[in-house]
């Protein structure tokens, strides 16, 4: 037995365990001090009422022989796939039911796509970026080259002339909150079409975009149906991090050397996956209904307003920041020349705020810091003032 | 971009679509004839009441800010892992909480294990057997060699002296319903320990075992903790095919060249998976509680009794059959020298019974046929008599 040696290429991730350890040590030293947790990347508001009602109805259906459901269709129930399709249609993006594959979330889908590609393909991974992109590529044996986000390009790097076969794009970005413009995404689509590359477009945060000129789907870009796959999720848009619902859209036109990737993905999913729980598919349908969307968008607006509060607090302090306008994330430069972990300690000690060191998102994140809007409104407002004071004192 | 060429090694599976097409054609020709579907591999009884109540309670928890749950622990909530651990303990098998990884089912877990092994490992796949074992191995690039089930070995093949690195074992077996004895599993464990092979033990049907002398877990066998992983599921034991809950037990002692497979699996799962929905984990906890098990075992007994009815109907007809005693499946030789599809047509036309052609489970299944106990009791009893008549007429 030979193990997959590519696991040796993975660096252990100490990001959140490191944060946890430091927070625990602080709490022990200062048992009476209340911390504001702005490092959290998880939703905190409860599920919307239409979603909860759908869960109850589905549970009752599963209790009666006439309405019980066992194995469902491999791609997902038509009612749920149609709900995703209609969500796209409302924004003028036409995707077909057969192009939509439901899943338990973006991590599973991204990971699953590694099965479709030969190991020699070069993966282009945003740095800073969601660590999963690099890790799944390394596990599968791909050479990994960073696409460098910088202050100069607003953490929205474009094609850099280097080779690439698998292109990860995330917009609005995690951790940066930066959103690609139509022109910037067009450049990536043209690059992919020219090279025969495949874009894996992570749209997990699209619901946070309120600027109508910004694209919410890669399929708003001409030619994307021939080079891109889009991965979506209800985790952040409808609070489904504990319910698990995502989807991948694989356009019919997406081919590599005459092979339709939709057919390969269907083969992969029907062999290695058994579908989303029936109650969760009903919950997703409810979240995407008119009443559900209205309720969910209130939560999205709440989180975004928190992020805007943090962003405003940094105004005039002289530190660079991005995100927070069309995203739950604010990405800031650490003041006073501090590195990510130094600023983590500083902010914890001085402002009683827990954030996330940017270095945890790749080498390009060193010297930066992520704050999120997923906390409580009043606590975030109070923390924003302490953040501003701390940044000014450090500058 | 180069695609994974191993997909070309996969044979398209026409088994269930072929069955569906033939049944539809029959129904069109004979609109008034009622068919009995004994081909189905899915549960039909509704969820047990404690499970439904748990789903309702979890939905209510998700509706309130104080009790809402977002991302859960990567391996699963302690309450659910402990429920699995306690289920093992009741049978005298000691597994630790940290050795249990919850998932959405056996297909995902089996598929995920392919990530851990280098491509040159030889996969030993039971023939006839669950087609997923071969497909996931081929996709990952492994050489695949069958382990041959035959009438002579009662469809319980042992080690055959050939090489093997990844050993798939399923007991009670699908499609054969045959159950390995302690001595037979011991031979496999000794083989694996000697060769440094890893056994992937699929225990999806263990709840159907009523003969106390038969092992329900590979970990009842001495030495298995050093060479085996066990994959379990509530799909058939608690009717969770539409709810999705499974688990993999990776013993601490399982190592390859000094690397603990538990650690690799944790890395794989935390990178490519986000956990089981919270309500489903609560449902699983309920299914594994005293009240839940009592209710679920009634359904298991119902399905098994159906299988026994079918098995009894074949008694004295002269055709070989196995399974049906400790399994929901009955595996029978086709009478009169018919091949699998000929017998399918014959049984459909003559007895109005839909079964599953054995050839769909691998070349070794040709000339055999699978019937299942997942149908309605009265319909199964009536069909059993028609089955017997048809077999006698064909012999």
Report what the structure shows:
The structure is a homodimer of 395-residue chains. By secondary structure, chain A is an alpha/beta fold. In chain A, helix 9 (290-313) runs parallel beside helix 11 (377-394). The relative contact order of chain A is 0.16. The first copy, chain A, folds into 2 domains: 13-42 and 292-394, Aspartate Aminotransferase, domain 1 (Alpha-Beta Complex); 49-288, Aspartate Aminotransferase, domain 2. The model of chain A has no long low-confidence stretch (mean pLDDT 96). The longest helix of chain A is centred in the C-terminal third of the chain and has 24 residues, at 290-313. The first copy, chain A, starts with 14 loop residues before the first helix and ends with a helix. Chain A has 11 helices and 15 strands. The first copy, chain A, is 38% helix and 14% strand. Chain A has helices at residues 15-29, 49-62, 78-90, 106-113, 131-139, 182-195, 261-272, 278-287, 290-313, 340-351, 377-394, and strands at 36-37, 100-103, 123-127, 144-148, 166-170, 198-202, 228-233, 246-249, 255-256, 259-260, 321-323, 329-333, 353-354, 356-357, 368-372. In chain A, the strands form 4 sheets. A 7-stranded mixed sheet of chain A has the order 2-8-7-6-5-3-4, with helices on both faces. A 4-stranded antiparallel sheet of chain A has the order 11-12-15-14. Chains A and B meet through helix 2, helix 4, helix 5, helix 7 and helix 8 of A and helix 2, helix 4, helix 5, helix 7 and helix 8 of B.
């Amino acid at each position: 037995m030979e193990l997959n040696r590519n696991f040796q290429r993975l660096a252990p991730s100490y990001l959140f365990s490191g944060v946890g350890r430091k927070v625990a040590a602080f709490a022990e030293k200062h048992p009476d001090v209340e911390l504001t947790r702005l490092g959290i990347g998880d939703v905190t508001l409860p599920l919307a009422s239409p979603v909860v009602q759908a869960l109850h109805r589905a549970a009752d259906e599963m209790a009666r022989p006439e309405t019980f459901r066992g194995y469902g269709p491999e791609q997902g129930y038509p009612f749920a796939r149609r709900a995703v399709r209609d969500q796209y249609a409302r924004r003028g993006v036409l995707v077909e039911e057969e192009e939509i594959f439901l899943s338990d979330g973006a991590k599973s889908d991204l990971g699953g796509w590694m099965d479709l590609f030969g190991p020699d393909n070069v993966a282009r991974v945003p740095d800073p970026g969601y660590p999963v992109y690099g890790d799944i590529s390394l596990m599968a044996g791909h050479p990994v080259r960073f696409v460098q986000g910088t202050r100069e390009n607003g953490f929205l790097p474009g094609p850099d002339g280097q080779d690439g076969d698998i292109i990860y794009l995330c917009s609005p970005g995690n951790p940066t909150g930066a959103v690609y413009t139509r022109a910037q995404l067009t450049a990536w689509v043209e690059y992919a079409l020219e090279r025969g590359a495949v874009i894996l477009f992570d749209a997990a945060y699209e619901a946070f975009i309120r600027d109508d000129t910004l694209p919410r789907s890669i399929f708003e870009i001409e030619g994307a149906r021939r080079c891109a796959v889009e991965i979506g999720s209800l985790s952040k848009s409808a609070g489904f991090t504990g319910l698990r619902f995502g989807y991948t859209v694989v356009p019919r036109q997406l081919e590599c050397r005459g092979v339709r990737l939709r057919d390969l993905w269907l083969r992969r999913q029907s062999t290695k996956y058994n579908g989303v729980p029936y109650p969760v598919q009903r919950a997703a349908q409810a979240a995407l209904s008119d009443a559900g969307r209205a309720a969910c968008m209130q939560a999205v607006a709440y989180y975004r307003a928190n992020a805007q509060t943090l962003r405003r607090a940094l105004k005039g302090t002289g530190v660079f920041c991005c995100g927070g306008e069309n995203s739950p994330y604010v990405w800031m430069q650490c003041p006073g020349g501090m590195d990510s972990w130094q600023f983590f300690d500083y902010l914890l000690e001085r402002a009683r705020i827990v954030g996330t060191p940017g270095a945890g998102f790749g080498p390009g994140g060193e010297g930066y810091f992520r704050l999120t809007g997923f906390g409580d409104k009043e606590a975030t407002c109070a923390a924003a003032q302490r953040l501003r004071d701390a940044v000014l004192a450090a500058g």
